[in-house]
């Protein structure tokens, strides 16, 4: 019995009404198990010392010396949308939909975890010394070591792409377990790269469970666990410093008089949770993070609103977890991330699939950026904050109404660059058919 959710919230969620939920536990203490700032710095340092290696492995990274980073786009063009009437402050889009090589936000966590595993394995086998240049990991000794090891992941698609591409590039045997929601082109692209794709009839959680089970049975297998992984979380958290530097370069100050609002699409919670964790380390109470989830899959909302660490899924409250936003089609939130977000997340807003395609179309037409549907989930964040009753209540409770004109809004766009043109065309048509 889902007796743990307030009755009116439960009814609104079950009727798939889009809503903004505010987290009553924001500002409570982090659990003792929370990562440290030191760990986030180490993850950023790992990505830096592996940049030369990445530039060797992927020709498209040569121009940026192996940096995996995305642009911060001015999103003033969004003010033309009716939803942005009443939005005060400056709007930005953080363009992780175009992160190199993997084409989604999963490049951050996924590449970090595969690189951490490759380093650890090479150190353990004496193929690498701690101070060595990481380009050695592309050498013959490391490659023959990796060839006898397997990297396994369960995914709805984008994590599989990120892990599969990086693991295969380093010479690992890469195996990706995927759910039925995963798109055909993602499977095809992985197979092209020499990755083994195993398909499962169940949902995302079933694919993860299957991957975990096969990896546990094999001592030479390493399982990337989207539901529990600290290295993934830390790779995402490292993005916070990059955003801070980009804002600073634009002359955008973040402090009590200039609050920062960040809106992030949420699936299992690792990517948006890691970024929120990193941003809170840097900006404390001056950053306010909101997640966006599909109305059929609001797993983080349900978990946090339950007020308990006991797992509560969207199925438990009668939702079906069916959405075209395949990157967000997750029924149960990460038990690693949810307790962190209980202390740090400002709130969650939900979005229906029709709205998702409409918002995707508007970003394409107004900002000339081609997103996948999941990546458009956060676009209405500034609207929810500035124009809804719940948003106004949040601003009032935090004394932010006067500061709103000097605020910055960052809408995180999370995937799309690898989506084939014909798929983008289909997304576009669906957006047009609902535009009127
Ligand atoms: C995975 C993904 C997300 C959300 O990340 P989680 O770690 O699952 O919460 C958002 N958008 C896209 C496009 C994704 O692939």
UniProtKB/TrEMBL annotation:
Q: Residue limits of the Tryptophan synthase beta chain-like PALP domain? A: 85-381
Q: Which UniProt keywords are given for this protein, alphabetically ordered?
A: Lyase, Pyridoxal phosphate
Write down the required cofactor(s): pyridoxal 5'-phosphate
What GO biological process term is on the record, naming one? isoleucine biosynthetic process
Q: Which Pfam families match?
A: PALP
Domain of life here? Bacteria
InterPro entries for this protein: D_Ser_am_lyase (IPR011780), Ser/Thr_Dehydratase (IPR050147), TrpB-like_PALP (IPR001926), TrpB-like_PALP_sf (IPR036052)
Task: Please give the Gene3D superfamilies that the UniProt record associates with this protein.
Answer: 3.40.50.1100
Q: Which residues carry this modification: N6-(pyridoxal phosphate)lysine?
A: 106
Q: Which reaction does it catalyse?
A: D-serine = pyruvate + NH4(+)
Q: What class of enzyme is it?
A: lyase
Keyword Lyase assigned to the entry: answer is yes
Q: Could you give a GO molecular-function term held by this entry?
A: hydro-lyase activity
Question: Which EC numbers characterise this protein's activity in its record?
Answer: 4.3.1.18
Against HAMAP family, the record matches this protein to: D_Ser_dehydrat
PANTHER family in the record: D-SERINE DEHYDRATASE, THREONINE DEHYDRATASE, MITOCHONDRIAL-RELATED
**Family the UniProt entry places it in:** Belongs to the serine/threonine dehydratase family. DsdA subfamily.
**Full protein name:** Probable D-serine dehydratase
Q: What is the lineage of its organism?
A: Bacteria, Pseudomonadati, Pseudomonadota, Betaproteobacteria, Neisseriales
Underlying gene: dsdA
